Prior knowledge:
The chain is of the alpha/beta class. The chain has a domain at 62-130 and 138-185 and 200-230: TIM Barrel (Alpha-Beta Barrel), CATH 3.20.20.70. Helix content is 41%, strand content 15%. The protein contains eleven helices and eight strands. The protein has helices at residues 17-30, 46-52, 79-84, 95-99, 105-117, 130-134, 138-146, 177-195, 197-202, 213-220, 237-246, and strands spanning 6-10, 36-40, 59-62, 89-92, 121-126, 159-163, 204-208, 227-230. Helix 1 runs parallel beside helix 11, helix 7 (138-146) crosses helix 8 and helix 10 (213-220) runs parallel beside helix 11 (237-246). 2-phosphoglycolic acid (PGA) is lined by residues 10, 164, 169-170, 208-211, 229-233.
Amino acid sequence: MSRIKFIAGNWKMNTNKASAIELAKAVAKAAPAGVEVGMAPPFVYLDAVGAAIAGSSVLLGAQDVYFEKNGAFTGEISIEMLKDLGVKFILTGHSERRHVLHECPALVGKKAAAVLAAGLTLVHCVGEKLEERDAGKTLAVVQAHLDELPATVVDPLKLVIAYEPVWAIGTGRNATDAQAQEVHAFIRQALTKKYGKDFADRVRIQYGGSMKPDNAKGLLGQADVDGGLIGGAALKAESFLAIVNAGK
Ligand code: PGA
């Protein structure tokens, strides 16, 4: 099964309006064919970044969302609002949402279900903390995060899993190729149990956590690594594009 790799930048709470536009334009201009490329800027720059990449193949993404359609939810952003700005994919369950903003599994699950129900691509992030890995709980934690997903999903191409070991995020300490492949294979097996083999074979599983130009080729070369979710290295067009090109 050949899956087109999906490399997405998660800009987190970085850039300003001018630098966001500049970065988006530089990536859109040079994004190669043969690999799907996405970028998730801060909410407030989605509109400007969307305009900057208009007409290119680069997909606009959002780092978070609220599951309700509209109403009295101060500070929150709905899926319809994101769609309005041309957003094509939305992250749920990022470790910073789980562990810094204290989102619970029930909330993450509601967000994930809402994104899929709206027909957008879901990038559902899963991954263990260092103490969980050290305690031999990696696969159990990943399974629990996968359990947040709805029992039925229609389109395998609209479901992306990002395996992001928390100890690798922003630390410069990436998972080894073998560590990543082991968990990715487990994720595909879990998806097979939940959704069937044909479905699971088509789902892209991204790796995230200190993916850089110098380790991208090895990680992306693993059988079940179908892309990357890139934080720090996505903030410079040169390093992001080097990773994208490693995924061609
Ligand atoms: P990093 O972040 O590439 O800076 O480690 C990845 C992520 O959190 O998505």
